[in-house]
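dumping this here before i forget
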Amino acid sequence: MAGGRPLPTSVSRRGIAPVGFDVTTAVRELAVDACSRLSELQHIVCEQIVFRICQTRRAGPYGVQATMTPLRFRDGAETTVRRHRTWRINPLPSTPTGVPALYLLSLYVPRFLDLPREEKLAVLVHELWHASPQFDGDLRRYGGGTRFHGRGCDHYHAEMQQLARRWTAAAAPDSFSWLNDDFAALRLKHGRIFGNRVATPRLFRV
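structure:
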């Protein structure tokens, strides 16, 4: 995403550190802040979510902006049985601290970064809300309507926008100023956009 030239680096106290804007670190900080301010999200343990970026094939506002992938099956089970065969998820991404990961939150760049500030926040809350109330690696399920969006995706997202507005009303006015910039502006400021890249987990037959 930085082009064909060598990636710029700088020397930090820990050694060589990449120069640029780290999308996954910035969004993780957002998630931690959201979960600390919104009572509806306080069951979420961000240390057990792996954040990654995925590069979109096409530019433009339409398409997937972010996804929350569960790394366990229903009720947090590590395996499931389908067609008389047992399956598990592999490879399981690990968190930086070595804690078992329960979710994989993917950000589709540059599409996610090109959203308006308020919509970036709403999309993040939208994905965090998908985590089950037990935070066991499964998704939140609804009894009526659609399984994962209740009465429908539009209604679901409208509720997430309301939560995002409550969050920003409680946060400091200058918090996370980078949200005001799109992909091009961030690249102009920082010279490079990068983030954590993780292989997509797949079903593996035991």
